[in-house]
C-alpha cells in the first residue's frame, strides 16, 4: 500500500505542474490581449493635431517598437515622421512627400511593425507587409533599418532583390512576415513561387513611389498589384510625390491623406545645401572634373553620369591618371555582391570619389558626402532634387555643382526657378584648370579595350540626349560632337543610326502595306533594312576597329576599287595575282556564278572561294581556316633554346639504329643523372653564398648595435701592412680641412659624391652658431703640417677627444 501511494504522488505533482503552466500561459495571453486593447484604444484616442509629437515616447507605440527606436538612437521624430506615423497607425492610406534626408524610411517602418503587432501576426498567417523599393541599394538600406528598429519583435523579415539565387529565396519566402523587395524580382516570385501566400497582406509600402509608378516600372507594378488583395493599407513616400488620379487608381488607394511637410517651403532642397552650376563645353567636362577632384582630395565626392558606359570610361581614365584619392564606380549591370561591396567601402571612406548613374540617386544614404557633382544634366528637376539629396542629409551641410553645356544653361535654369531651387553660377580659377586630353588620347591609342569603351560612352551619351523629352534643354544639333569625341580620345565621332535624318524614323513607323509598295519613296531605305548577319555588322564598323580595313580588303573587289580611288590610303598593300593564280582565277570567274569572291594568298593549295554566307563565316573560324591551309609543323623550344618537334614518334628503323631499348634507357638515365648532379652543385654553391651574405649582414648589424660602426669603417681606409711606414699611413687619414680631394674620392669609389651641404656662411657666423651648443662637434685649426710621429699623435688625440 505505501508503494502505491509513492507512485501516485509524482503523477499528481506532474499534473499540478502542467496545470500551473497552462494557467500561466492563459494569464500571459490575457495580459497581452489587455495590452493590445489598451494600445488600440490609445491609437483611437490619439489626436495628432492637439497631442505633443516632439518625442517618440508620446506616440502610441508598442513596447518592442519603442525599445527598438531607443536602441537605434532615434530621439525625436522629424516632421514627416510626426505627421505620417499617427495617421498610418489609424489605418489610413498615406501619400507622403518630404525633402531628401528627412527620415521617410522610419516613417513607414514604424506603422508596418505596429500593424502586424496589433494583428498578432505569426509565420503561419503568410505575408503581412510588402515594402517595394526602386533600386537594390535602397532596398538593402531599408532592410538594414528594419532589422535595427524591429530587433525586439518576433517577426521574420526577408530581402528579395535581383542578383541572388532564386531557388534559395523561394524556399524561405513562405515563412516571411515582412518582405523588402524590388518590383521585378518580387513579380518573378509571385509568378513562380508556389509557397508564397499574399492573400492576407495587411500593408503595402512604396518607397520612392514616383519612380516606381513611372513608365520604367509601370508594367511590373500593374502586374504585381493584381496579385495583392484590395483590402489593405497602402503607404506611398517620395521626395517628389505624384497626386495623379490615374496613379492612385492603379494602386487601389482609398481616400488617401496627402502629407507634404515641405510643400510651402522656400525651396524643394535642404536649406543647408549650397548649390552651384558651372558653364563648360561638353568637350571640357572631363578636364573640369579632373581639376575639381585634384582640388578636393580631402573630400567625399559623388559624381553622376547619365549612362553606365560613361561611368566606366570615366572611372578607367581617372584610375590611370591617379588623382590622389580612392576611386569607385557603381552601375546597374554590376553583380550584386560587387555592388554591395562598393557601397560598403565608399560608405566607410572619409575621402573618396564614387562615379555612379541614377541607380543611387534615390533614397540611398551615404554618410558624410561633401560634394555632389553632376557631369551630365539631369532629365528633369525631380532627378536633380534626388541627386543633390545625397548630401546635406539630416540638417548637415553639403555642396553640389552642376556642369552645363552653354546650350543647356537657359532651359535648365528656367526649370529650377519654377521649383524655387536657389542656385548660383561659379567659374573655375585659371590656376586650377587642368587638361587631360593628351593623356586620354595616349591611353585610348595604346589600349584597344579603352578605345572601344570610349566609343560606347560616346554612343550612349548621344542616345540619351536624343531620347530626352525636353528638347529646349537637350538639343543634339547644338552640341559639338566632334570635339566631344576628341575629348574621349577618338579620332572621329562614331556614326549613329538615328542621326541620319527624319526619314529613318518615318520608315520605322510606316505600315507593312506602305513598305510593300515598290513605288514608295522609301524603297531604297527598305532594301537597306534587310536582315544582316554578324559578319555584315562587323564589316560595317569601319570606325570601331583598326583591323576592319584589312578584312574588308580581303573580301572583295568593291573595297579594292574604293581603295584605289582614294588618295589618302597611299600605303595600302593590295593583293596581286600573278602567273598560274591569274589563269585559275580568270577561269573560275567565267564558270562560277555572279557575286562569287575568290581570295588567294591565304596559305592553301587553291584559292578560297566565297559563294555563300557559310563560306564567309569560315573566314572567321580559326579551325576551318587551319583545315583549309593544312597544318604546319609545330616547333617548341626547350630551356637551352634548342628547337624540336614535340611528342613526335620516331620511326622503327631510326630507333633500332640508335641501339637497343635497354641501352637507350640506361643512356638517358645517365645523362639525366649528370644534369641533376650539375644542378645540385650549382644549387649548393648558391645556398652557400646566400648563407655567407646573410652572416655578413648579421655581423654588420650587430656591430652597429654595439657602437662599433666607426671601427667597422676603418678597414675601408686601408690598414698599414708589414713594412709600411706608419707616418705615411697616418698621413693618409682624413683630417679637418681634408687631405683627400673630392676628385680622388670619386675615383676611389667609382661614382660621383653628393655635394656637401653648406652649414656655415662665414667665420663670425660659425662662432655664433657653435656657442652654447654642446656635443655638436669641434673645429680644429691646423697651423703647421705635422711631420713627426709626436705631431700625428697629438693630432689624433685632438680628433678623438670628446
Structural summary, described in words:
The protein has 802 residues and is α/β, with parallel strands linked by helices. Among the domains are: 46-260, 3-Layer(aba) Sandwich (Rossmann fold), CATH 3.40.50.300; 273-436, P-loop containing nucleotide triphosphate hydrolases (Rossmann fold, 3-Layer(aba) Sandwich), CATH 3.40.50.300; 498-530, no CATH class; 541-629, no CATH class. It has 34 helices and 18 strands. The strands form four sheets. Strands 3-4-2-5-6-1-7 form a seven-stranded parallel β-sheet, sandwiched between helices. A seven-stranded parallel β-sheet has the order 10-11-9-12-13-8-14, with helices on both faces. A two-stranded antiparallel ribbon has the order 15-16. Helix 6 links the parallel strand 3 and strand 4 (178-181). Helix 4 crosses helix 5 (136-149). The model is unreliable at 499-530, 542-546, 555-590, 708-723 and 735-777 (pLDDT under 50).
Amino acid at each position: 500500500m505505501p508503494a502505491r501511494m509513492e507512485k501516485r504522488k509524482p503523477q499528481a505533482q506532474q499534473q499540478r505542474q502542467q496545470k500551473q503552466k497552462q494557467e500561466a500561459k492563459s494569464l500571459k495571453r490575457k495580459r497581452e490581449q489587455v495590452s493590445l486593447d489598451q494600445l488600440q484604444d490609445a491609437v483611437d484616442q490619439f489626436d495628432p493635431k492637439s497631442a505633443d509629437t516632439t518625442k517618440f515616447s508620446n506616440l502610441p507605440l508598442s513596447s518592442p517598437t519603442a525599445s527598438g527606436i531607443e536602441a537605434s538612437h532615434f530621439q525625436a521624430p522629424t516632421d514627416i515622421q510626426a505627421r505620417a506615423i499617427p495617421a498610418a497607425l489609424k489605418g489610413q492610406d498615406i501619400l507622403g512627400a518630404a525633402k531628401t534626408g528627412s527620415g521617410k524610411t522610419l516613417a513607414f517602418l514604424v506603422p508596418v511593425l505596429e500593424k502586424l503587432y496589433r494583428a498578432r501576426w505569426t509565420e503561419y498567417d503568410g505575408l503581412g507587409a510588402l515594402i517595394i523599393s526602386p533600386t537594390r541599394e535602397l532596398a538593402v538600406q531599408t532592410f538594414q533599418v528594419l532589422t535595427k528598429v524591429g530587433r525586439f519583435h518576433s517577426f521574420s523579415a526577408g530581402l528579395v532583390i535581383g542578383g541572388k539565387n532564386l531557388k534559395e529565396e523561394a524556399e524561405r519566402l513562405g515563412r516571411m512576415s515582412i518582405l523588402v523587395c524590388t518590383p521585378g524580382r518580387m513579380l518573378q516570385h509571385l509568378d513562380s513561387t508556389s509557397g508564397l501566400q499574399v492573400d492576407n497582406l495587411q500593408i503595402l509600402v512604396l518607397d520612392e513611389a514616383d519612380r516606381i509608378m513611372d513608365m520604367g516600372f509601370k508594367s511590373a507594378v500593374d502586374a504585381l498589384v493584381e496579385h495583392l488583395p484590395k483590402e489593405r493599407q497602402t503607404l506611398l513616400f517620395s521626395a517628389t510625390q505624384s497626386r495623379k488620379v490615374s496613379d492612385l487608381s492603379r494602386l487601389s488607394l482609398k481616400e488617401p491623406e496627402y502629407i507634404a511637410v515641405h510643400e510651402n517651403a522656400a525651396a524643394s532642397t535642404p536649406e543647408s545645401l549650397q548649390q552651384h552650376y558651372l558653364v563648360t563645353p561638353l568637350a571640357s567636362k572631363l578636364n573640369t572634373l579632373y581639376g575639381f577632384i585634384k582640388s578636393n582630395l580631402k573630400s567625399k565626392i559623388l559624381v553622376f553620369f547619365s549612362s553606365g558606359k560613361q561611368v566606366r570610361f570615366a572611372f578607367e581614365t581617372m584610375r590611370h591618371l591617379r588623382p590622389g584619392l580612392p576611386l569607385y564606380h557603381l552601375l546597374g549591370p554590376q553583380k550584386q555582391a560587387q555592388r554591395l561591396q562598393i557601397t560598403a567601402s565608399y560608405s566607410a571612406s572619409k575621402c573618396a570619389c564614387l562615379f555612379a548613374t541614377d541607380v543611387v540617386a534615390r533614397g540611398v544614404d551615404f554618410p558624410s558626402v561633401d560634394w555632389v557633382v553632376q557631369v551630365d544634366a539631369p532629365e528633369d528637376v525631380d532627378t536633380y532634387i534626388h541627386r543633390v539629396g545625397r548630401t546635406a542629409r539630416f540638417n548637415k551641410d553639403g555642396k553640389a555643382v552642376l556642369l552645363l553645356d552653354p546650350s543647356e544653361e537657359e532651359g535648365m535654369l528656367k526649370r529650377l526657378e519654377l521649383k524655387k531651387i536657389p542656385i548660383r553660377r561659379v567659374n573655375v580659377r585659371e590656376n586650377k584648370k587642368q587638361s587631360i586630353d593628351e593623356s586620354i588620347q595616349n591611353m585610348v591609342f595604346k589600349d584597344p579595350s579603352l578605345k572601344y569603351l570610349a566609343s560606347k560612352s560616346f554612343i550612349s551619351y548621344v542616345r540619351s540626349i536624343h531620347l530626352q523629352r525636353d528638347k529646349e534643354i537637350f538639343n543634339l544639333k547644338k552640341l559639338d560632337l566632334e570635339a566631344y569625341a576628341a575629348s574621349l580620345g577618338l579620332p572621329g565621332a562614331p556614326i549613329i543610326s538615328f542621326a541620319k535624318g527624319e526619314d529613318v524614323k518615318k520608315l520605322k513607323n510606316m505600315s507593312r502595306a506602305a513598305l510593300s509598295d515598290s513605288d514608295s519613296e522609301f524603297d531604297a531605305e527598305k532594301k537597306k533594312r534587310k536582315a544582316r548577319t554578324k559578319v555584315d555588322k562587323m564589316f560595317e564598323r569601319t570606325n570601331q576597329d583598326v583591323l576592319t580595313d584589312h578584312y574588308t580588303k580581303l573580301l572583295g573587289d568593291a573595297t579594292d576599287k574604293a581603295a584605289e580611288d582614294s588618295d589618302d590610303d597611299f600605303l595600302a598593300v593590295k593583293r596581286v595575282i600573278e602567273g598560274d593564280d591569274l589563269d585559275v582565277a580568270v577561269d573560275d570567274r567565267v564558270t562560277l556564278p555572279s557575286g562569287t569572291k575568290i581570295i588567294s594568298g591565304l596559305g592553301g593549295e587553291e584559292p578560297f572561294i566565297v559563294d555563300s554566307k557559310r563560306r564567309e563565316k569560315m573566314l572567321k573560324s580559326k579551325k576551318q581556316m587551319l583545315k583549309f591551309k593544312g597544318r604546319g609543323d609545330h616547333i617548341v623550344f626547350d630551356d637551352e633554346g634548342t628547337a624540336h618537334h614535340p611528342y613526335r614518334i620516331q620511326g622503327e628503323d631510326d630507333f633500332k639504329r640508335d641501339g637497343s631499348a635497354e641501352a637507350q634507357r640506361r643512356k638517358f638515365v645517365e645523362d639525366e643523372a649528370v644534369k641533376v648532379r650539375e644542378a645540385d652543385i650549382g644549387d649548393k654553391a648558391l645556398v652557400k653564398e646566400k648563407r655567407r651574405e646573410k652572416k655578413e649582414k648579421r655581423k654588420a648589424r650587430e656591430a652597429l648595435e654595439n657602437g662599433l660602426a666607426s671601427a667597422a669603417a676603418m678597414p675601408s681606409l686601408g690598414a698599414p701592412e708589414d713594412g709600411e711606414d706608419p707616418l705615411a699611413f697616418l698621413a693618409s687619414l682624413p683630417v679637418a680641412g681634408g687631405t683627400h680631394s673630392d676628385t680622388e674620392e670619386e675615383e676611389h669609389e667609382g661614382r660621383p659624391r653628393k655635394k656637401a651641404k653648406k652649414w656655415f656662411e662665414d667665420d663670425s657666423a660659425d662662432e655664433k652658431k657653435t656657442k652654447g651648443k654642446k656635443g655638436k662637434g669641434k673645429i680644429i685649426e691646423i697651423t703647421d703640417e705635422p711631420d713627426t710621429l709626436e705631431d700625428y699623435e697629438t693630432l689624433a688625440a685632438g680628433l678623438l677627444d670628446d
